[in-house]
Amino acid sequence: MAGLGILLRLRGLSRRTKIVLLVAIVIFLTLIIGVSVGVTKKNKNSNRIARFEDNYNITWAPDHFSMVNGGELVDIMLDKVSGAGFGSINKYLFGNISMQLKLVANDSAGTVTAYYLSSLTDTRDEFDFEFLGNTSGQPYILQTNVYVNGVGGREQRIFLWFDPTADFHTYSVLWNQHQAIFNVDNVPIRVFRNNTALGVPYAYNQGVGIFSSIWNGDQWATRGGLEKINWTYSPFTASYQGFGVDGCIYTGTADSCLTGKNWWDQDQYQTLTSDQLSKLSWVKQNFTVYNYCTDFARYKPPLPECGSDP
Hints:
By secondary structure, the protein is an alpha+beta fold. It is about 20% helix and about 30% strand. It has helices spanning about 1-10, 15-45, 50-55, 275-285, and strands at about 55-60, 65-70, 75-80, 85-90, 90-100, 110-120, 125-130, 140-145, 155-160, 170-175, 180-185, 185-195, 210-215, 235-240, 245-250, 290. A hairpin with a 4-residue loop joins strand 2 and strand 3. The chain starts with a helix and ends in a 19-residue tail after the last strand. Mean pLDDT is about 90; it is low at about 25-45.
């Protein structure tokens, strides 16, 4: 404003010239203010915590959902009437797909909380996390599985090295053209490599949705079905947060996701680092419950990838 006063007091300029200069300055300042406001709004939006509605829809039993903080946190519930589930709005082909979960506390025997990526086709590609409930005081079992072209049968089971009911933990799949790494809090617990050279199919051309659900699995989930759900503890609640998705949106063809230009395509993500190999070895040695690769009664000889995957 002081600058405008100086302009108005300048001598040697006609009144018309002063008015023209004044209008030009006002327009310039308006544009600057507008740009500043636009950047602030953009930064504010980009820093906003992702909410459920940004990337997900309820797919099963909306009356068994509870939204907290405008959808920044979601609870889903299982009772005698129903379980509940949700799925992503988009499908994805490659990326680092993650979610933060806090599992059912206390006596959760017979319950299954599933978090998985699936193409939901007859020849489905799928990466599964299944959290198998327990009786009070017993550790949760995490079962993972991989389906490619509709064929699964690649179950692995581990105990978790922490209480997954006490706080949120991050479960993710870093998936690219070379490998799919199952991570728990950035600790690799499993790797499925691209072993097409060995004749093993790999998931690289079908987009997958992101899904989660809680349901009654007491026919098999806890001690092979010996432990049934104790409904006096219901409703059983699993909690979720971290609804952002860092992946390539699948639009019907794989081409746009096969450019090799995304961060997860770069050299350092094509194999495990020495640190990741060390952590994976630690998990396998200390927490393995079951591995299809060592089930020689079931697979004789073992499947081809068993000699290649770390």
